[in-house]
Write a structure and sequence with these properties.
There is one protein chain. With about 150 residues, the protein is α/β, with parallel strands linked by helices. The chain has a domain of about 70 residues: Ribosomal Protein L15, Chain: K, domain 2. It has three helices and six strands, in the order αββαβββαβ. The strands form two sheets. It has a three-stranded parallel sheet with strand order 1-3-5. Strands 2-4-6 form a three-stranded parallel sheet.
Length: about 150
């Protein structure tokens, strides 16, 4: 026989509460005197029950509105693209400080005139922005969001 093969059992019985005054836990059996919690079945109250008044879940105000955890695309306007030329992607836009990081979603939106010929490769572009790019002699290609290295 090994020590870890031993079966350990309690050698004390549960206390028999409420079996007379001399029994140690007699009369009120540790429930105090009177009140809802002294009665039989008081453990079956629903969670948040507050003695018949409004439950705690109803009393606490709820948050208004809706919080979206969906990351929003960063916006780049077409008139800011005049500074760039050739192939323009997330890395180029991040170097020109038009977006915060090359690993974010980018949407190009029309504003002002686009004069430089660019080959744009971003995640999104409005229809009018694509028209402005092709009118200036460039092209638009939709690409997936760039993943960070090591992910």
């Amino acid at each position: 026989m090994k020590y870890n093969d031993l079966t350990v059992e309690k050698n004390t019985r549960p206390a028999r509460k409420g079996r007379g005054i001399s029994a140690g836990q007699g009369k009120t059996a540790g429930r105090g005197t009177k009140g809802q919690k002294a009665r039989t079945g008081h453990r079956k109250m629903p969670a948040g029950f507050m003695g018949g008044q409004r439950a705690i879940m109803q009393a606490v105000p709820k948050l208004k509105g809706f919080k979206s955890h969906h990351a929003k695309a960063e916006v780049v306007y077409t008139d800011r693209l005049n500074e760039l030329s050739g192939k323009v992607d997330n890395y180029t836009l991040a170097e020109a400080e038009l977006i915060t990081s090359p690993f974010v979603k980018v949407k190009v939106i029309t504003r002002g005139e686009l004069t430089s010929k660019i080959d744009l490769e971003t995640q999104f572009a409005s229809k009018t922005a694509v028209d402005a790019i092709t009118k200036a002699g460039g092209s638009f290609k939709q690409v997936a969001i760039l993943q960070r290295p090591g992910k």
